[in-house]
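[recover] target loaded
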């Protein structure tokens, strides 16, 4: 399906890319970051790291591996 859309000239953007761009604008709107790239990237990195850690902790609980592998 993606190949067909590209053949027709449509731009295909993965959800994760589209959603992260939307989140970045909200951070600017609410004053959590300034409009420059450095602070926005730092916020994205911090949020991504926190989400990864939470996901790993949930995985460990589901696999009955408290404290990691």
């Amino acid at each position: 399906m993606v190949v067909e859309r590209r053949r027709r000239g449509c731009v295909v953007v993965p959800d994760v890319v589209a959603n992260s761009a939307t989140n970045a604008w909200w951070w600017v709107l609410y004053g959590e970051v300034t409009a420059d790239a450095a602070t926005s990237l730092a916020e994205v990195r911090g949020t991504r790291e926190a989400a990864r850690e939470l996901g790993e902790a949930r995985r460990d609980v589901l696999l009955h591996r408290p404290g990691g592998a």
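[recover] notes: The CA atoms of residues 37 and 54 lie 26 Å apart.
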